[in-house]
Amino acid sequence: MRLATWNVNSIRQREGHVCRWLAARQPDLLFLQEIKCETPVFPQSGFAALGYRCAVVGQKAYNGVAVLARVPFEVTQRALPGLAADDAQARYIEVTAEGVALIGLYLPNGNSGGPEGFAYKLRWMEALRARAAALLEAETPLVIAGDFNVCPTDEDLARGTLGADDALVRPDSRAWFRSLLWLGLTDAVRTLHPNETVYTFWDYQAGAWPRDAGLRIDHVLLSPDLAERLTEAAPDRAERGTEKASDHVPVMVTF
């Protein structure tokens, strides 16, 4: 199985990028984040022509996640279990394919909305940890992929890109990410590239891409049985250099 995750920062602006990338790399599943469109207007036909079926959890102008797959899959959740029933933010999709549970997520940034904005991020994190723990307890092969909006360590961001009070690096955010690893999940990219400088996001501002002032905030976590079969895990860095690119690049894993 080959799967990937990509925050496309508007699917209507990046549909051509995604089609080109799918044709070249041909993952079995691709999880998208920040599609920024409602479900009915998601551009499915272009992906269908490439052999990909789509499942979408959309929201007007903000957020939104989707999965594109050329293998059979079934959607099991369209919202994160454990959050309030009135939570309207489209940030979560969960499917099963080839006997594997796969979660695609767009975790809250936590920097907007003041203290309540960060509190929402913490509630989201705790609900995700509980969901992951339940799936692992059931001995379900598990993948969690997406934009986590967390730099797990100081090695996951270029020097000077974020202040110590930024929600992506605050101690609570990093402690939560570690708690996922303590459950038994494996950070796929860091496992295969433990000492390398690896980024998945470069801001549009301040020449971040030319200066390589990046962040690693897009992750793929694997349950132990899948981690044992991991053969490839890396961001497709070249995608950031394309015309009108997203500020994130795809991250692909193979197992």
Structural topology:
Layout: E1 2-7, H1 11-25, E2 29-33, H2 44-48, E3 53-57, E4 65-69, E5 74-77, E6 92-97, E7 100-106, H3 114-137, E8 142-147, H4 171-182, E9 186-187, H5 188-192, H6 208-211, E10 218-222, H7 224-227, E11 232-235, E12 251-254
Parallel strand pairs: 1-2, 7-8
Antiparallel strand pairs: 1-12, 2-4, 3-4, 5-6, 6-7, 8-10, 9-10, 11-12
Helix pairs in contact: 3-4
What does this structure look like?
By secondary structure, the chain is an alpha+beta fold. It has one domain (2-246): 4-Layer Sandwich (Deoxyribonuclease I, Chain A). It is 27% helix and 23% strand. It is built from 7 helices and 12 strands. It has helices spanning 11-25, 44-48, 114-137, 171-182, 188-192, 208-211, 224-227; strands spanning 2-7, 29-33, 53-57, 65-69, 74-77, 92-97, 100-106, 142-147, 186-187, 218-222, 232-235, 251-254. A 6-stranded mixed beta sheet has the order 3-4-2-1-12-11. Strands 5-6-7-8-10-9 form a 6-stranded mixed beta sheet. Strand 3 and strand 4 (65-69) form a beta hairpin. The longest helix is centred in the middle third of the chain and has 24 residues, at 114-137. The radius of gyration is 17 Å and the shape is globular. 42% of the residues are buried.
CATH structural class: Alpha Beta
How many domains make up the coordinates? 1
CATH fold naming = Deoxyribonuclease I, Chain A
Helix segment tally: 7
For the largest beta sheet, what order do the strands appear in spatially? 3-4-2-1-12-11
Q: Which stretches are low in confidence, meaning pLDDT under 50 for 5 or more residues running?
A: none
